Amino acid sequence: MSFYHINPKPLEDGTYEVHREGCGLLVKHPDRIDIGSHLTPDTALKSAARYYDKVVACVHCGGDT
Length: 65
Ligand SMILES: [Zn+2]
Known about the structure:
4-stranded mixed sheet; binds zinc ion; alpha+beta; 4 strands
């Protein structure tokens, strides 16, 4: 179980990255969205989809469980 956040700054194509707590690529931004604890990145992405249409798991941390 890990805690996940949405990076508030979208990528160039408008996709928002979902990061696991402690990821080195996660910005310390006051507007980042906490989406709670999830067993897998997959369920974290489903939660993130409630905030933004286009979300993707971070390539750095999204593959881990
Ligand atoms: Zn990440």
